[in-house]
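Homework help thread (please don't just give me the answer)

Our assignment gives two proteins as sequence + structure token strings and asks us to describe the second one. The first is just a warm-up. Here they are:
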Amino acid sequence: MRLSDETRAWIEKASEFPPGDNDGLLGIPPVAGEKPLADRLRAYLATAFGAEWSDALERRLVAEADEILDKKAARDGSLEAWLRDRAFRQHCALFGQRPFLWHISDGLKDGFSVFVHYHRFDQANLRKLTYTLLGDWLARAKAEGNTLRYEKGRELQQKLEKILEGEKPYDIFVRWKPLAQQPLGWDPDLDDGVRQNIRPFIKAGVLTHDLSKILKDKDRGNDVPFAPWYDVFNGERRNDHHTTLAEKRAAREAAAKRVEAAK
């Protein structure tokens, strides 16, 4: 590949970073044997800034993010507090309320909290989050006798289980796909976009920033007559629609029979 010397220098520098995360699940508290997210982020920043890195620079970076995106200084300017309380909201603002990093939490300040990388957040990783990471957290809370942490963590686990199953209203609905092609459970197609795929998590109330405004019941304009839901919605471009797992499975079976009959 024809690259400039400067580009090659940056590629070489990037190779010095600590190993990347293997699943895109980044716990803010330490879970399942992994370090807390603040410590992992510091390791990257220390490598990126080299000799310039210091506690003062860390505080300055956090303060600049607050000033630019929140227009005010925070009471707690630590990296830990920024990640826990403000990073996701600021990330949403920066990316037009279409985040590719999602912050999932049980709602407690000292409770279970994790950032997930949406582009890698497939069914296997949601299952890992629900049963491995959160399962480890629940086991520790139970062993420590921390009833509140256990109960809130268990509530979050139950909500994630509903998203995994994908029964309405925790299903993904994509209006440009026929019923037979709608996802079964948490099986997102990245090409369908953040707004379609994040809906179950907004409905379940597990995100730390309110994104409900992006869930428009319907979009402007009208669908084309050959759109799969044109007759059902009278041409409206509706998004707030739910289908059951049974309906989708029946549609898939019918579609498979039609394909078989056509052979």
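The one we have to describe:
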Amino acid sequence: MPLIVLEGAEGVGKTTQVAKLAERLTGKVLSLREPGGTPLGEVLRNAVLHSDLEIAPAAESLIFMAARAQLVASEINPALSKGATVLLDRFFLSTYAYQVAGRGVSATDVVAANHLATGGLRPDLTLLLTLPTDIGLARAKSRSGHDRIERADAALHGRVAGAFAEFATAVWQKSHPEAGPVVAIDASGSESEVHARVVAAVRAALPSSIR
């Protein structure tokens, strides 16, 4: 069964759309988030997103990779081997966007570390939710409890948005086969309108996976 990922910058509505999509997928579905999804992953999530620790960009990247390696080994691969569909709220495109484009960590090093963390696991479909950066950040700021990345400056978020836009292009995907197919989804409008676009994209790419 497939591995489906929802990606995007802050405030695009990934978590909401993951929950709504899970209700439409056929068969057994396992929904997970990154970082997190395992006891180790949740500890690392708290350290990297919800602490006042000073974390160097390279260290931040490796924390995300460690959480990912554990998630793949203990949750994702076992679920896929049992025929479940795995639905992920973020995966490695977020590392490429936030740590490579946003923080300036070496792309070559991150791609190599990601291969180690995933064992070469490739998403069958990544749905990239898109919104203008100012709208997404306004949505994110309307929530309470902003994490370290949400509190980053506007310049970083601009670089992240530019990276995500590039990921949806055929040229970028051709040079990054490890990412699998990436489909951009307009995240403007109501939750129901966005959900309809998400369902249509999954139906087009993986018709047997959705009701």
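TA reply:
I won't write it for you, but here's a hint about the kind of observation we're looking for: The chain has a mean pLDDT of 93.
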